[in-house]
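To assess whether ligand presence alters the predicted conformation, the chain was also submitted together with fe (ii) ion. Input:
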Amino acid sequence: MSEIALRSAREIFFGPGVRTQLGKHAAPMGKHALIACGRTALQASGALDELRGSLEAAGVGVSVFAEVEAEPSLATVERGRVALRESGCDLVVAAGGGSALDVGKAIAGLANDPDPVTLASVAGGVGLPCIALPTTSGTGAEVTPNSVLTDTQTGEKASIRGHALLPEIALVDPELTLSCPADQTTWSGLDALTQAIEASVSTGANPVSAPMAEEAGRRIAGSLRHAVQDGSNLQAREDMALGSLLAGLALASARLGLVHGLAHPLGSLYHLPHGRVCGALLPWVIDFNLSHAEAKYAYLARGMDLGRDEDDLVNWIDDLADDLDAEIDFAEAGLKREDFDRIIPPTLASGSTKHNPRPVDEADLRELLGRLIG
Ligand SMILES: [Fe+2]
């Protein structure tokens, strides 16, 4: 058996209401917390006031950095680091969707790094503690050692990695996802689904990660439609939140695959939401991988209660994309042959691509991208 590496937040608490424990967990870690969040959603749902109240009741001071945008930039992390220093915070609370978690983790993990943040930064030192509270069921970033950021100077989007990006505590409260709108529920759910499937079949899959990835896939398959159709369905929200958490734990050990290798350059070039790109690419990449992973996909189809073989998995994904109106016409989105040379090098360099079950070379990518635009 090859080496197995396991990574996660130091402690994980899951369940309706665990957000109310924020102050209790934060108080031993710091005196003043910087809450990193998006510009509006956390305030509009009332969650920001609730989290602030929990911290203050436990004697922890609060500053708020509500500047995280979708597909966040390096510059946002830099502004967050300045806000951290100027307010004298010694703890970060990252609350929101995957973007807010990625930025909060990077602010905390690189808090003591004297250099500017770049896509080549490695969070290998000692940062500040971070508590992560996801409000979408998608990236699993509450338990992963990476932050996906964009360099707006070059348009390049990539993961920075390092153990200092692992939160001290993940508080995964499905009630925080009840206010997530249907489109974000769809895109983040497709990301979680893709992560569960890619972690299941990756070359890094192992006896610890595989059961988590399979259970993630089963929970997401059974609940994604329900969560989109009725956002107030707490059972569906719980299954989605647990599914995305399990997928995050699985990918932190097993890594991902070609969908994620392609999703970053395609997403940043054509300004497409990450989960939407993942969901749209998934059937194409499964088809590409079948010659090397047919039995793994068939096993996964049975584990996810979708049928007997790989065709059942692919048909289910096609039906899901149809129901959720999640397909992308890549030509209409802007993909053209002249762009292939901007997409192929970062895809080949991606750690996700390197863990794809079928080895990938430049000719493969040219053919696959050509098929995407017919
Ligand atoms: Fe993802």
